[in-house]
Every structure is written in structure tokens, then in C-alpha cells.
């Protein structure tokens, strides 16, 4: 299951369903296929660590999110000016229709960053895998229909892993757990709302990225001011410069702000150069590698048998869920191919 803790993990400067574009697969070299898979895997593994390091150094999550959204707006506008990407001019009617989902999404990202700030990376990834569980339960209640047994079993493993890992978490941080769970809930509501309302239909990926970032800026300014983060920015910057140095800090901020675009571009390149299956497998391996590395990097984890066992069970359940969803998607595409008339 892909972790969605960054703006650009939901939207990137790439074509997607709804762009009205088709992309024919063409032969690619082995080097490009392998390189794109390695690039995607490396970017996916690195993202949590980049976010965690930035939060450890600077510490003001909402301010960082404001920087991130500002960088996204400036980047998209720059790429549009260079004719690298294209989309229609700012449409306030469309912006208004996207406002509810944008608010949900940005709130999800903000709580995710605050959760990551207070949790170690393995425990954070473990809790974030609860998002599909919330979506699944909500859909079951709405449709009054139980999900397939294999999906239910994989979700039960995810939940059981969270419970076991939480019991063995010696570094338990209540705020971190609350923030991460709120992020899961907001992300689930966002996904359900988009699916049921069709709010994003007819909106290209680049437009969605731009609107999400642009519409979030006023709200983030208000949050930074009302939370008191604004007055904490000068001392936080002073501490960060002392800790890292000015040039290194600027580089870290740039990487933090733009890393999500690299992640999604590499994911797109991996899918186009290989297959959806390869991208799915790399995504699963990324979750496992990030979890293992998280035990040792950026503060690491205080080992406890229950905690390690719970994280393993949770990762196993998440991997199983991803495989099942991929198989379902392939079966659905096969049925659509059979039912579509020959051209």
C-alpha cells in the first residue's frame, strides 16, 4: 500500500486517467527499465527520511507545508511559462468546486507531517496503513455489503499488526498516534469524497496539483499565524543553520519541497518503462525497506519483540492487500477488454 503523506504523492506533473490522453507502450532498453525501477524505489524509500530529517532540523510542520505548497505553485507556473506543461487559466468556478477536497487533502498532509514529527518511521508507516481499512469499513457500511474474504483477512492483519506494535512501542507518543490516525481518517474521507462526487473529473494532474497548492496557501498562512509558529520561525531557522549550515539547510528545504514531484515522475517513468506490476512490486518492497531502515536511521527504534512482530504483521497485511487489489484491477481490465468492441 502506498503511503500518501505528501502532496505530490497524490498529484504530479504527469498524465493520468481523466487527461483524455492515451500513451502507447513502446520498447525500452533494459538499462532504462531497470534504472527507472531503481529510481522509483530509491525516491519512494527516501521520502519519509527526507521529511523526517527536515522536521527534526526545523520542527515547524505547518510552516514547512506552506514552503512546500509555495514551491509547488512556483514550479508549476515556471514549467507552464516554459511550455513544459499546459493547462487552462485559473478558473474560480473550478477552484470553488475543488475547495472541499483540497481542504481535506491539505489537512491530511499537515496531520501526517505532525504525526511523522512525533513518531519513528516504522511506527508511522504502520499506522498509515490503516487508511484503506477506514475506506473499506465506510464502504461496507454504505453498501451494506461485506468485502471479499481475502480483503477482509489482509485488513485484519493490518489492524492486528497496529495493535501488537502499539503495545510494544516503548517510545509511545500519544500526540503522534492521534495526528497519524487523524491523517488516515482525513485521507479516507478525501478518497471517498472524490470517488463519490467526481470532483476531480475533467481536471488534469497538473491542474489538480496547482489548485491544491494554491488554494491551501491562505489557510496555511492563517494556521501558521494562529498557532504561533510565525514567531517561532526566526529561532527555528537560527537553530537549523547552526546545526546544518546555511547552504545545506537551503538544499534540504528544496529537496523537501520538490521531492514529491520526483517521486511521482519516477513512478510514472517506472510504469511506462516496465509495467504496473513492476511498479506495484517496487512499491511493496519500498515499504519493507523503509520500515527496516527506520529501525536504525534518524533516531531509530527501541527494540521490543512485540513492536517488531506487530510491524512485521502489519507490513505483511499491507503487502497482501496490495497484491489482492492489483489482481482485482487486472481482472477488471481484462473484462473491459473482452466487453469492448474491436476497433
Automatic annotation (TrEMBL):
The keyword Phosphoprotein does not apply. Signal peptide: none annotated. The keyword Transmembrane applies. It holds the Pfam family TPT. The chain crosses the membrane at residues 31-50, 57-78, 98-119, 151-170, 176-196, 208-228, 240-263, 275-298, 304-323. Keywords: Membrane, Transmembrane, Transmembrane helix. InterPro entries: Sugar_P_trans_dom, TPT_transporter. This is Sugar phosphate transporter domain-containing protein.
Amino acid at each position: 500500500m502506498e503511503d500518501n503523506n505528501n502532496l505530490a504523492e497524490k498529484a504530479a506533473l504527469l498524465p493520468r486517467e481523466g487527461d483524455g490522453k492515451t500513451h502507447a507502450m513502446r520498447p525500452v532498453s533494459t538499462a532504462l527499465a531497470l534504472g527507472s525501477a531503481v529510481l522509483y524505489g530509491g525516491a519512494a524509500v527516501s521520502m519519509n527520511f527526507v521529511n523526517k530529517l527536515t522536521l527534526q532540523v526545523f520542527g515547524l510542520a505547518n510552516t514547512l507545508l506552506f514552503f512546500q505548497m509555495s514551491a509547488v505553485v512556483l514550479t508549476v507556473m515556471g514549467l507552464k511559462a516554459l511550455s513544459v506543461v499546459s493547462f487552462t487559466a485559473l478558473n474560480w468556478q473550478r477552484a470553488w468546486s475543488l475547495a472541499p477536497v483540497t481542504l481535506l487533502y491539505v489537512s491530511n498532509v499537515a496531520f501526517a507531517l505532525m504525526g511523522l514529527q512525533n513518531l519513528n518511521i516504522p511506527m508511522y508507516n504502520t499506522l498509515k496503513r490503516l487508511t484503506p481499512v477506514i475506506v473499506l469499513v465506510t464502504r461496507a457500511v454504505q453498501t451494506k455489503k461485506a468485502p471479499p474474504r481475502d480483503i477482509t483477512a489482509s485488513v485484519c492483519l493490518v489492524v492486528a499488526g497496529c495493535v501488537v506494535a502499539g503495545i510494544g512501542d516503548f517510545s509511545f507518543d500519544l500526540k503522534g498516534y492521534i495526528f497519524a490516525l487523524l491523517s488516515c481518517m482525513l485521507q479516507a474521507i478525501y478518497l471517498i469524497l472524490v470517488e463519490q462526487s467526481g470532483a476531480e473529473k475533467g481536471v488534469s494532474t497538473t491542474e489538480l496539483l496547482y489548485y491544491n497548492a494554491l488554494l491551501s496557501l491562505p489557510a496555511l498562512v492563517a494556521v501558521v499565524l494562529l498557532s504561533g509558529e510565525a514567531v517561532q520561525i526566526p529561532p527555528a531557522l537560527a537553530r537549523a543553520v547552526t546545526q546544518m549550515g546555511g547552504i545545506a539547510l537551503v538544499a534540504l528545504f528544496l529537496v523537501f519541497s520538490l521531492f514529491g514531484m520526483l517521486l511521482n515522475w519516477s513512478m510514472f517513468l517506472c510504469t511506462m518503462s516496465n509495467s504496473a506490476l513492476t511498479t506495484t512490486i517496487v512499491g511493496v518492497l519500498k515499504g519493507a525497506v523503509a520500515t527496516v531502515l527506520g529501525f536504525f536511521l534518524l533516531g531509530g527504534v527501541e527494540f521490543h519483540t512485540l513492536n517488531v512482530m506487530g510491524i512485521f504483521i502489519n507490513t505483511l497485511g499491507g503487502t497482501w492487500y496490495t497484491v489482492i487489489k492489483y489482481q482485482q484491477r487486472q481482472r477488471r481490465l481484462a473484462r473491459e477488454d473482452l466487453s469492448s468492441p474491436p476497433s
